Amino acid sequence: MKILFADDEKSLQKLMSLELPRLGHEVTVCPDGLTAVAALERNTYDCILVDLDMPGLNGIQVIGKAKEFSPETEAIVLTGKSSTESAISALRYGAFDYLTKPCRLVELQALLDRVAEKRELTRKYRAVKSRLEKLEGKSNLIGDSPSMKQVGRLISKVAPSNSTVLIRGETGTGKELVARALHDQSHRIEMPFVAVNCGALPENLIESELFGHRKGSFTGAEDTRIGLFEVANGGTLFLDEIGELPKSLQAKLLRVLETGEIRRVGDNDSMKVDVRIVCATHRDVELMVAEGDFREDLMFRINTFEIHLPPLRQRTEDIPELAEHLCRRFWPNVPLTQTIFSSDAIRSLKSHDWPGNVRELANVVEHATILCEEPPIEPDHLPRRFGLMSTESTANNNIGGKPILKAIGPLSLRELEMQAIYEALERHEGNKPQAAEELGVSLKTLYNKLNQASSMDKSA
Description:
elongated
């Protein structure tokens, strides 16, 4: 890394000018804060090592200037043992960590390795994000229905702010896509967007995953690990299924939201992070509060601004455009003027209730593109629950002017299993724990089944 070292002790200046290059880094040595700021004005550094007490400008002032010139530059503070409080204060101003003098080179090397690890994670994230944008385009919401237009208006209003947002909607409606749109329309677009499903992580690992841990802080903690709050520093952290967060973690999350500080597992000192929090849930949080399963103060804190995503069955007019958009991910070279779905296939899609919402539609589209060699997609290219349906329009089988669709062929075991899951979710209004309990499976198994729904369609 390219490192700037600032300290008024000549012995340390000489030591760092020799040892940092030996460790593989390029170093600029400065004798005081003013010289350091002048160097920061001329060059960009990956990391700065600064003494807290220097003539001219102190370490905290140098860190402030460094963040002003290059927000991605990480800062490590060097301090005497009697100035620990000042070092902790520096963390609140954006320092990555601190070392007390005299420090051992092995400690400094370990800290620099952590800085390099964080920067590498950020670079990888940006590379993946760039590739995804080339493949899928920006996180534009698809649909011209009045409800989706309202969602778009709300996103454009709240995205430029730092307000915490709660996205509500049934499972599979596209809550993460809304979160990404909030990030992409904010001033944090060049910083990381990190998504975590609170319901998919083992309870004993959630705290370590979110906040990180120190080496040796618990059995199995063989190395110091950076948490997702640190990875997302400067960007957006999306906490999906916030309703599944254990009660023991809710208080810690509330503290982070109120103070902007996190503390790694096994660490005594906290550090400042600049993270925009976006949450999502399909559950009735108010009911959870009444039942004692969710903290009321946390509910008020995460619900600064609310966006509700309508289920797909309430915006069937968006299905043709959505289906075509999803289809072009698999058929990117099909001309925009060519018809992708036949009118019969569109009627079949619009007649479905879509308990799995857009996620289910994506699986159906993938299934169709595998069976269909070239457009247009016909009803028999759809999964059996669509392709093997017939319309009966008799007086006995017509309700409210809409024909009832009945399956006329046997379903596979996988299809029956997914049908049971979707029906259980619909009965419990998207509540996964209650659906899992009814089905007699663990919550983790239910998540796995939903994530593997595409496999069901491929095997049909």
